[in-house]
Amino acid sequence: RFILCITVMFIAFASCSRQQDDAIPSPARSVYYWKTVFKLDSTETDFLKIHSVKKIYLRYFDVDYDEKGKVVPVGTVRFESKIPSGTKIIPVVFIEKHCLNNTGGLAEKIVNRVLKMSEVNGISIDELQIDCDWTKGTRKAYFDLLSEMRKLLKEDAYLISATIRLHQLEQPAPPVDYGVLMCYNTGNLRDYKCENSILDAKDVAPFVRHHLERYKLPLCGAYPVFSWNLLFEMGQFKTILRDIDISDSTLYKKVSDKRYIVMRSHTVPVPDRDSFGLMVRAGDEIKVDDVSVETVMD
To answer: pLDDT, tens digit, for every residue of 13-25?
Structure first.
């Protein structure tokens, strides 16, 4: 299954304001693809076919500050695989919220870059999604940015959508055609005592119970189909371990359903190609968080 990829189950939630229903796309099984290289292996291609996935929300790039304090695109995706036939691509741009302090000309830059990337890679699009962990303090700047992008895109009849985090349900809805409610990463992965940092139904319940029905934006729901291995040293979070074989009993000893002890020190891979790897020391603890089908359905 995809690493750091989210299955999107398009479920029409109750909403008080449905004036935009004619603009909402038809429900379809979808996934998020959140890597810097778009390269599908045979397993991933089979996954798309078996589950009739017809939409990929594909992260194009992030928006962040460079070393000179200038707002720039970072982590731009590189295409090494062709888009599967019959699959619709929705570009997603993640904006670091501190960049909302300097949005002059940003809307036009994002829109132009997304359109150019799509054209260069032969991808036909009719929608742009923006992802940002905005708060009350940055709400106005973010909403103004969305409104400006929407104005630019509406000239060519493009949709604009946005991710909605659970805490954002407490705020007014952003000026977009629809939102995707992110029902994952509900806990603190740095907390040694957190039962499940990816998804716990009891963490979601208060937001759904108190805010969802009154939220004035049509929503889809995004649910997790990933797991991660969290490394702790003396109860302190160190990092997320990738590309390890947790079943290797020569390296890891299972002490409970979700916890392992490192048996001997060794080096594990890291995303940075220029790095020699990360040293994991004997005695460190690994907490495995994953999500059951029953939890997602709940």
So the answer is: 333 333 445 567 7
